[in-house]
Amino acid sequence: MNPVSTKKRLTLRLTPIALGILAACGGGGGTSVADGGIRGTGSSVGPVSGFGSVFVNGVKFETRDIVNQRVESNDEISTEGDLEKGMILRIEGKWNKDGSGNAEALKYDDTFRGPVTDIVVPDESTGTPGSFRVLGQTISYDRRTVVRVKDGNLTEGMTVRVSAWRTADGYRASFIGSATTGSDFPLELEGRIDEVQLDKFRIGDQWIRGGQGVSYPGDLTINDIVKGALVEVEGRFLSEGGDVTAAEIRYSDDRRFLREEGGEIEMTGPVQSLNVSGSTFSLNGVQVDYDNETEFDDFARSRIADGLLVQVEGEIRTGRLYAEEIDLFEGNAEVEAGVLSPFEGSAENELNVGGVRVRITNNTLIDRDDDDQTPLSEANFLEVEGIEREDANGTFFLEALNIEIESEDSGEYELTGQLTADDPNSRKLTVLGVEITYDQNVGSENEGWRDCAVVSVEYQKVTDGFQAIGIECDD
Q1: Which segments constitute the DUF5666 domain (predicted)?
Q2: For residues 465 and 88, what is the distance between their CA atoms, to the nearest angstrom?
Q3: How do residues 422-452 score in pLDDT, each as one tens digit?
Q4: Are 44 and 101 in contact (CB under 8 A)?
Q5: Domains of the chain by range and CATH?
Q6: pLDDT tens-digit profile of 174-199?
Q7: How far apart are CA 243 and CA 199, in angstroms?
């Protein structure tokens, strides 16, 4: 499946999520509550997926108890109304028995703020993510990235704010948005110090100059500016595109992911430094320990790998996160197809997309054009990326992570998922719960697909079901 073009993604507006609005103006709905779930007081750190309150990590947090819905931030994000979908937010609050939450504090901090350089657009033919650089740091972006920039295109020199997770080879953006240059400290970057000289230090290929006017908020002091230290810097260019003159230097955002000893936390991020034999990995700079008691929600623990986006819930002990539950937060299946008549007895948060049962949750990001208020159930054509799941009744469905609305139904559908059945005699295969008929020519072309766990099928709707027009291995 090809990723959506950069231009298309940048012109989309993200729609709030609330239960029941599949048939009303605004987007998708439904609830997604982990079987375990934090009960009582805790922290949640992850990308915002909706408003009308704030949705983070699949939980709807009411914010009415926070005065003026204030957000603790020094990046000109003052209230809930300044937040955008995709921004990585920390919420302190209380969880209710029904899985909802009451927020007591909202905290946000940009990862980067500065001019864009070295843009590499996504490769639609291979699904390779795009990338760009800000202040010497490489940042990748993909279909899960919310991109909101002026005029709909990333361009060289454009000033952006980025909310991102650190990875082994740079950063992975959750949000990219236009930024003004009017703040006191228009530039922000984080990273590991590679070199220190008398009056300056280098992160990647960006030099930062200190001086007597530099503030050191928090625990960091000037004596901590050493090679290998992971820091966050705010400041401005000494001359355009040159060294950054630091105004504030503090430890990096890693510490916002921690909680006091014994505290419950759920957070999302990419797996790093996986040690399979030791059952540990790093998530946002915090070591995660898992064992046989850890619940892997609908995916095999053998699938965990560096770079995989996951959501972890557990308890902080001795500076480590002991995982009670690990959920997949990365799509492993897709469908691009027309919206068909609802399934018999379908739930309020379900759609029939090209025969695939698509379920909307509080984690679903829904993209639509600015002037499009069509309910999802009345849309013509959708592109859905999500997680393939099977419920207790053996029904396969796609838990939607991203939904993009297309204006026209081309009649040409495509899906990617596990090949759960294939009968060469009747020439029928099943993917994502959809039974698709194929003829001899289609079945024999690229015949190696029969030995693949995951296949991609191009198909179309016919009078008595669905007919394949192309089948390929997608392992």
Answers
A1: 124-176, 190-249, 268-326, 348-391
A2: 42
A3: 998 899 999 999 999 999 888 667 678 888 9
A4: yes
A5: 6-14+331-411 (no CATH), 31-108 (no CATH), 112-178 (2.40.50), 187-254 (2.40.50.320), 258-328 (2.40.50.140), 414-473 (2.40.50)
A6: 999 998 755 567 899 999 999 999 88
A7: 12
